[in-house]
Amino acid sequence: MENLEDVLQALDEFQKMRPSEIPRELEDYLCWVAKTGDPVYQWSLIKTLFREKLTRVMTDFYESCPTLDLAPCPNVEHFNYDTMKSNLLERLESFANAPFTVQRICELLTAPQNLGQ
Fold first, then answer.
1. Angle of helix 43-64 relative to helix 24-36, nearest 10 degrees?
2. pLDDT 10s digits, 41-59
3. Is the model more confident about 67 or about 24?
């Protein structure tokens, strides 16, 4: 992450404009947090970015791996994507500060294909 002021400005614009794509500098910021574990900014400034990135990753994953074909399993509750998505987003909103797992969250958001590694 080269310039903290540029990232801060990109965060501010992202919150106001809600663009259809996450800007490259914010994607780079998430990668930097995944490497360092240091969110740098207050949670109130980055929560919108985290929420949007989480929503996009969940949607991409669900669309590429639909669960409609899964056979029911005994003792396992049926997976409901909308409920799970809503629960995760509610939990994200409940944090007053960046969660202590922010580094792992960023790892999953920036490289979701490496989920089990």
1. 100
2. 999 999 999 999 999 999 9
3. 24
Residue type, 68: L
Under 8 Å between Cβ of 43 and 106: no
Alpha carbon 1 to chain centroid, angstroms: 18
- Which residues 6+ apart lie within 8 Å of 7 measured at CB? 1, 25, 26, 29, 40, 41
pTM value is 0.83
User: What mean pLDDT is reported for the chain?
Assistant: 87
Cβ atoms 102, 40 nearer than 8 A: no
The DSSP code for 75 is T
Collect contacts of 99-107 with beta carbons under 8 A, ≥24 apart.
102/33, 102/37, 102/39, 103/33, 103/34, 103/36, 103/37, 105/50, 105/54, 106/30, 106/31, 106/33, 106/34, 107/34
pLDDT, one tens digit per residue, over 71-99 is 777 887 777 788 889 999 999 999 999 98
- Cα separation, 53 vs 59, in Å, equals 10
